[in-house]
Amino acid sequence: MAYEINEEQKMFQESIRDFAKTVVEPRAMEIDEKGEFPWDMVEALKKNGFMGLPFAEEYGGEGADLLTLCIAIEELAKVCVNTSLILGCQELGSTPIKLGASDELKKKYLPMLASGEKLCGFGLTEPEAGSDAASMKSRAVKKGDKYVLNGTKCFITNGGVGEIFSVFAMTDPEKGVRGISAFIVEKEFPGFTVGKHENKMGIRGSSTTELIFEDCEVPAENLLWEEGKGFSLAMMTLDRTRSSIGAQGLGVAAGALEYTIGYMRERVQFGRPIAALQGLQFMVADLAMQVEAARSLVYRAACAVDSEEPGFSALSAMAKCFATDTAMKVTTDCLQLMGGYGYMKEYPIERMMRDAKITQIYEGTNQIQRVVISRALLGGK
Amino acid sequence: MEFDLNEEQTMFRQMVREFADKEIAPYAEELDGTGEFPYEIQAKMADLGLYGLPIPEEYGGAGADFVTYSIAVEEIGRVSASLSISMAAHTSLGSMPIYLFGTEEQKQRWLVDLAQGRKLGAFGLTEPEAGSDAGATRTTARLAAGEWVINGTKCFITNSGTDITSHVTITAVTGEHGGGKEISNILIPAGTPGFDVAPSYRKMGWHNSDTHELSFTDCRVPEGHLLGERGGGFKAFLKILDCGRIGVAALSVGLAQGCLDESVSYAKSRIQFGQPIGRNQGISFKCADMLVEVELARLATLKAAWLADQGRPYTREAAIAKLFASEAAMRAANSAVQIHGGYGYIEDYPVCRYFRDAKILEIGEGTSEVQRIVLSRMLGL
Ligand SMILES: Cc1cc2nc3c(=O)[nH]c(=O)nc-3n(C[C@H](O)[C@H](O)[C@H](O)COP(=O)(O)OP(=O)(O)OC[C@H]3O[C@@H](n4cnc5c(N)ncnc54)[C@H](O)[C@@H]3O)c2cc1C
Ligand SMILES: Cc1cc2nc3c(=O)[nH]c(=O)nc-3n(C[C@H](O)[C@H](O)[C@H](O)COP(=O)(O)OP(=O)(O)OC[C@H]3O[C@@H](n4cnc5c(N)ncnc54)[C@H](O)[C@@H]3O)c2cc1C
User: Which pTM does this prediction carry?
Assistant: First the structure.
């Protein structure tokens, strides 16, 4: 039940907060405007040892727990959701490997991901299979010592910049959900191309693309876990990574609130700072309560995952859903508090509001989180 | 009681809707990406007579009532907030002040081109230090040798820098009276020396609506450019804003209706888990709520417009309509993106644009908080 952060985590929090303020924040606006993937941020995260956070020491990582990763993502998202997503996606793309790969595969792939030498991604969604991921059409057929992969994945984060992907495909369509398998696919494998790059409302510095597989040859040993376990692996992964999306929502909410409070102290209308107006004070009080509650829930869920507490799946869903709903509410109200300036690109709040919206959608929409939570409580399917 | 539109209004709605669907909607996404002012579409709208609806025929307008005007703003707003606000601001801020407060000579000189949409008009009230507190105007106009000499800065002024902008009416301090500022309206033709238009703002949305900062440095206009009585500026702009609020309310209704239409059709056609997503109560209830809010917002807006048409006071109703409709529009846009899942986050889909366009509705022509101030004052608080 403990979710107080310890001394070590506190020190870590201070150091990454400092990094976020000094290195990341000055770049945030430009990353959004140019809509280009921020390779310099990858380098900076690498240099400071942050890329390795969610990887075990034996693979060259920092061996941090999920709570620590959530703290890192929160602090980065306070100033730049795009940069926080670099870390988030490295965790998402690699978790199937950590959970489902043989020791050999782990030794082969995890070190290059832990060092940040290569970026990774998670290829589950398809045009006709979003929330209903199990209805995927991608096929993998075993031929000798290879699987031949055909199909299209869409909306894949890091699609245009990643080199290692955890990809899900049907090996036995007759078995439905139990016919799905997971593979590690390298960008260089023949038959793999990157398709359409999406032009998005927000997280414009993140690369979101289609992944297209045309008779793509995947070595049979790159199968994760065993045939038919792909969907379980995807769900086990999401159960473990959802709090980190919650942390992203928490971060953008907290960052927007902090910025707006500073603005309200400075902005004078009717002869006094707008911070002196009760209508606005109460708005801020409401937002602050929600941010605090979101933080408690995200940290709590992360700790539950770290200790494999029974029921952590529903808790993760709650954390993701609550913190990202909070992100939307807080950024929207902060824009309101900034008046016309909030709507202008010279100020960070409109970007934060655009970035916040995606957190309610990806890694399971907030409707799907509610499905997960209510099913845990009410049963049924 | 009579809730139906009359036959003329009904036919007019149908005509504007068809125009919007045929001449605007197919180009709206692409236009948004360019960030340019859409002169061609503007000209077509002018041909339809949409730029001078409430202006009497003797000044080149259509002599229509405010209900008809609201219908036009709503129907254009259903497909493009940018074009709708440009038309609404032109009418209520650009033209109405001249119609309401101008001399016969001023009306003859300026109104005809405006009402026929050959020229666009703007109104400059807001300043860097005078937003909600519009009375804090610092711009000064000093009478010297039969000319007004104007100095100051206006910000966020819609329609102020297009190729066809004829003028901007500004509020300026023209003297002092018993310790208070004497505020007057002065009409400044585009291109007057000393009147500088800064490059367009970069905004979250309303990408095809023209917004600039304006600066005046010893800018001189003839004494006869005073609009209305000297010292009557404060009262005048309160009246102008009442009318403007009907416009923003109508635009909000249109945007919310657009969100509802898109959401319902998507909810019917998008299949997940073997059925249209609209079969899930989590989605259908959201649509039902949206419908309720659109309907209420429209009723409130038309009531305010109807009161204006009866020549009765409508400050209260305009504030209610603007407050409720704009907040409903933001909620609708948020729901619409959510209902579209990942696709709602992609710029190819109209709801993505609606989301970015919605937030400013709660800010322009008096923020939501300012509407609450108006209403609480009317309650005697
Ligand atoms: C920028 C971005 C990055 C992404 N990154 C990745 C990635 O790296 N890897 C990856 O695999 N995917 C990724 N995605 C995909 C994302 O996870 C999906 O968009 C998401 O799961 C929703 O799927 P969908 O878009 O098909 O929406 P749909 O599933 O079609 O949902 C449409 C609407 O229906 C609702 N809905 C669906 N089913 C139900 C139900 N049973 N009950 C109630 N409501 C329901 C949804 O909540 C939503 O509101 C990304 C998406 C975006 C936009
Ligand atoms: C795209 C766009 C187009 C515009 N077009 C025009 C135009 O054509 N002409 C024009 O003159 N102006 C225009 N405006 C300006 C717009 O009307 C102002 O932005 C608006 O009135 C708010 O002023 P502000 O931005 O200075 O915010 P502020 O007044 O600084 O408000 C900041 C926050 O404080 C709140 N607040 C302020 N005072 C109080 C109070 N007493 N009690 C409670 N809360 C309070 C506000 O509600 C807001 O939440 C436009 C703005 C934009 C963004």
Answer: 0.97
